[in-house]
Structures are given as C-alpha cells and as structure tokens.
Design goal:
- The chain is an all-alpha fold and 257 residues long.
- It has one domain.
- The chain is 71% helix and 0% strand.
Length: 257
C-alpha cells in the first residue's frame, strides 16, 4: 500500500508538467535522429556485423527511447536536497526505510517517464526509422530487462545521493556516472566493438544492463539468459544501498556539520 501511495503521488506530481516535458521529447527524438544519421552514414561503407544497417539503426533508436527509464533517474533520488535543507535527519528517523521510501517515489517518476516520454519517442521511431517489432517472447524478456535496468539506476543514484552526507559537492559523482554510462553501457555503440580493455571493463560492470542487454534481447540477438547479470547486480547493489543507509543512520553529516 505504501509503495502504491508514494509511487502514485510522484506520478501525479509529474502530470502537472506534461506540456513542458513535450520539449524534452522533441529534443530527445532529435538527438536520436542525429545518432541514427551518423550510423547510417557509417553503415553505407562499413560492415556492421550481425546487426546490419537495419539492426544497428533499431538498436540505437531503442536505446534512445530507453534513456528516460533506465538512465535519467532523479539526481541522487533527491538526497542532496534533503541534506542541504537538513531534512535528511527527519527522513532517516521515519519508521520507513529511507531506501524503500525513495525507491517507491522514484518508481512513480519512472512510470511517468515511460508513459509520457519513452513511449511517445518509441512510437515516432516505430514509423520514422522504422524500428523493428520484437516477437512476443523477446518483448516480455526485454520488458523484464528494462525493469531490472530501471532498478539498477535507482540503486546507483541512491548511492550517489548518499555521498552528499560526507561531501559538500556530490554532483560530480552524477556526471561521472553519466559519462561512464554513455561509454560503457552500449548506448551508442555495442560493447563488443569497444577496444579490448574497455570492453572488458564494460562487461564486468553493471552498465551493459542499462542499455545493451535490454536492446539485444528486444532485437532477438540474446535470450532471457542474458538478464542474469542484471539480476546479480540488482542483488549486489541492493545490499550496498542497505549497508550505506546503515552508515547514514549511525553518523549523519549535513554539509560537514
């Protein structure tokens, strides 16, 4: 019941800004078309492996759609703002676990972005690219992978937000994560095309779970077994979030105070 109440409140709050968020959709779709144009030019002269031009175009377009669900999570889940105002002490004192509380709110945000941002962009690409349609089993497996990706993003941003209790400037963690995500998640280029050492780092990180794995499953290049690393990372990062919350409860520092 609490999960539903917090998620719904977050979802309804975002409904007030649907018109302004339309600009986000336009900008995001245009960026996607730029990436698609680049790969179309490359595909005319280069071999694109198992993807082919059509497959890679669908891969890049799909990743652009998924950004709003798997990557554009609230900065630090709002923890830095709680630290600046001192409200973090009250939040930690509540009988509801801080991670669970903020996670519930963020799922409402993700549901809104999936419905009003990712879905409209997906529909545009479906007709304009055109984006491939998956078989039913692949669609179900891909949806599960996207849910795991969204949860991993929540965990990562929670850990980034928690850093605000021990440093007066945690935003650089946010930008560092965004840079690594763009490079290592397979967002713009499949990770098997990365240089050897960089590809090795990517495969042993959670970043492919955000873009590469859901897109590969959607396009039928991988099966449901590809989601196993995402599940493992979900467990690992959940324990990390719980452990960090324990540290936060024992020693609360608000901007070093």
């Amino acid at each position: 019941m609490l999960f539903y109440a917090l998620s719904r409140a977050s979802f309804n709050r975002n409904l007030q800004y649907r018109a302004s968020h339309l600009l986000h959709n336009v900008a995001s779709a245009l960026f996607g078309f730029i990436y698609l144009s680049i790969w179309t030019g490359i595909g005319e002269t280069k071999d694109l492996g198992i993807y082919g031009l059509s497959g890679l175009v669908s891969y890049v377009a799909l990743n652009q759609c998924l950004l709003w669900v798997t990557s554009f999570t609230s900065n630090g889940l709002g923890i830095p703002q709680l630290v600046r105002t001192g409200a973090i002490a009250t939040e930690l004192a509540r009988p509801v676990h801080l991670f669970y509380q903020l996670m519930c709110r963020e799922w409402g945000q993700i549901a809104y972005q999936a419905m009003y941002k990712s879905l409209p962009i997906y529909i545009v690409y479906l007709f304009a690219v055109p984006l491939r349609l998956p078989a039913l089993p692949a669609a179900a497996a891909s949806a599960a992978a996207v849910v795991c990706a969204a949860y991993l993003s929540i965990c990562v941003h929670y850990l980034i937000g928690a850093a605000a209790l021990w440093t007066t400037e945690s935003s650089w963690f946010q930008w560092l994560n965004y840079a690594f995500s763009t490079l290592l998640s397979g967002f713009l280029i499949p990770i098997e095309w990365l240089p050897g050492w960089l590809g090795w780092i990517s495969r042993w990180s959670f970043y492919p779970s955000l873009s590469y794995i859901p897109s590969r499953i959607y396009l039928g290049y991988d099966g449901i077994a590809a989601i196993y690393p995402s599940l493992i990372w979900s467990v690992v990062l959940t324990f990390a979030c719980l452990a960090v919350t324990g540290f936060m409860r024992r020693r609360v520092e608000v901007q070093g105070g």
